[in-house]
Design goal:
It is a single chain. The chain has 260 residues and is mainly alpha-helical. It contains 8 helices and 4 strands; from the N terminus they run E-E-H-H-E-H-H-H-E-H-H-H. Helix 6 packs across helix 8. It starts with 6 loop residues before the first strand and ends in a 13-residue tail after the last helix.
């Protein structure tokens, strides 16, 4: 993406370098031209929208009531301190992992509407067309960049989680990004006639590029996923699907939705 031209975003913000020490701050200069500023806004909105939709998914799936029923009074937190909470049983841990998977599924269904709006916007907004291209494979490009943006966000959250010594029921960012790719594809394929082969090529290419960049700055530890990483990703995903057969109906009496 072209970085030349007049600056549209030109300001400084205090950035917390060390999440354990909020006083350790550094002034970061944000200097972006028009298209990079627009891209930053679009991708940050994608990530924030996903978070909101994910939390709506927890509510709609009945997980709040389920938590009280299975684990007693408490809160369904995205992160729980390792030192401040009692260790969950294996059954509770696996159930929560299924709940996170289901909340992601709801989030993908809801986020597909935002993705569709972006695809439509390419036709009428020059800046959106400049970001995603205006020639061919627009639906696949928008969908692929959405998935890559979410992977970057998941990787950031994982880094913060380890820095703060927190635990989480979410899988590794690359596992999560891959099953979200499948979920978003399923939610959008009929409306936009998505070419799955092109989508896979774009996602794999851009995920690999981003993973290399994140590893280079010690932002992502991918040591668990070596050369045979796709097989390991499939293994992790298959495990989640197997757990869903066990715990998938645990909140049926409180859910607002039905799964097909």
């Amino acid at each position: 993406m072209n970085s030349s031209g007049k600056l549209e975003s030109h300001y400084s913000i205090p950035f917390i370098v060390d999440p354990i020490n909020f006083e350790a701050r550094r002034e970061w200069k944000i200097e972006l031209n028009a298209i990079r500023s627009f891209a930053a806004g679009v991708f940050s909105e994608i990530c924030s929208s996903f978070v909101i939709c994910h939390e709506v998914g927890h509510i709609a799936c009945g997980h709040i009531e389920g938590l009280k029923h299975f684990e007693g009074p408490g809160s369904l937190a995205e992160m729980a301190s390792m030192s401040g909470f009692k260790k969950k049983s294996k059954s509770n841990t696996e159930r929560r992992q299924v709940w996170e998977y289901d909340a992601d599924a709801v989030a993908c269904q809801l986020l597909s509407n935002y993705v569709s709006e972006l695809i439509d916007d390419v036709k009428v907004n020059k800046r959106t067309a400049e970001l995603f291209g205006s020639e061919e494979n627009i639906p696949e490009t928008v969908l692929a960049l959405t998935i890559v943006a979410l992977f970057a966000f998941f990787s950031y959250m994982r880094g913060v989680r380890y820095k703060l010594h927190f635990n989480s029921d979410h899988p590794h960012p690359i596992v999560r990004a891959c099953y979200i790719r499948n979920m978003l594809y399923t939610a959008t394929k009929e409306r936009w006639n998505i070419n799955s082969d092109i989508l896979m090529i774009l996602v794999d290419q851009w995920l690999d590029d981003l993973r290399d960049s994140l590893e280079h700055i010690d932002f992502l530890d991918d040591s668990a996923f070596g050369e045979d990483h796709m097989s390991l990703i499939d293994t992790h995903h298959d495990r989640l699907k197997s757990l869903r057969k066990v715990h998938g109906k645990s909140c049926d009496q409180w859910t607002w939705i039905s799964w097909s």
